[in-house]
Amino acid sequence: MSEVVRVLLADDEALLRGTLRLLIDATPGLTVVGEAATGREAVELAEAREPDVVLMDIRMPDLDGIAATEQVTAASDPPRVLVLTTFDLDEYVYRALRAGASGFLLKDTPPPRLLDAIRLVAAGEALLAPSVTRRLITEFTRVPMTRRGSGRLDGVTPRERDVLTLITRGLSNTEIEQHLHLSRGTVKTHIGRLMMKLGARDRAQLVIAGYESGLADG
């Protein structure tokens, strides 16, 4: 990631893009490198402008935000994708995360929170609120087990599985430390190993792996 966080805006509402550009460009350490009005434009500009973070609307013409996210994150050195959604119960949120998004934001997010979220995701963290994680779990547990991955956790130790289960259920690192009586460093080590073993880029992808392995149940 560059010293200045490069942001690509992908939304079909010109007014919203303009507002976001003014906010981001006025913030030290952040800059907008492009605007896309369709999903296809977002994919093309992500390749051409090499942003660190893409703010991706879900509902866009030509190519929706989910398909665009999947294409953007398939690059060899992809940017992080932060999904923009109108409702936190949006039926597409899980699909967007599954497509490779690192998190989501509501469109009415206060400006300071938005700016913090961009920095957080650019630094490699996942923006996945526990409250919405629980909602996603509720939705995902309705999916028949036959549609979930069965051998995804091969090679994961019992303790790593415990950590992954708690991540999947929306617990923070601090809560995991307290629940499993582990030190902060030990929890971070387990998370690092889980990412390596499961091929996950961030916490959001670990949550998805947990969902698909049935760890959200119960």
Automatic annotation (TrEMBL):
SUPFAM superfamilies: C-terminal effector domain of the bipartite response regulators (SSF46894), CheY-like (SSF52172). Residues 5-118 form the Response regulatory domain. Pfam families: GerE, Response_reg. The keyword Phosphoprotein applies. Residues 153-210 form the HTH luxR-type domain. InterPro entries: CheY-like_superfamily (IPR011006), NreC/VraR/RcsB-like_REC (IPR058245), Sig_transdc_resp-reg_C-effctor (IPR016032), Sig_transdc_resp-reg_receiver (IPR001789), Tscrpt_reg_LuxR_C (IPR000792), WalR-like (IPR039420). SMART domains: HTH_LUXR (SM00421), REC (SM00448). Keywords: DNA-binding, Phosphoprotein, Transcription, Transcription regulation. This is Response regulator. It comes from Micromonospora sonneratiae.
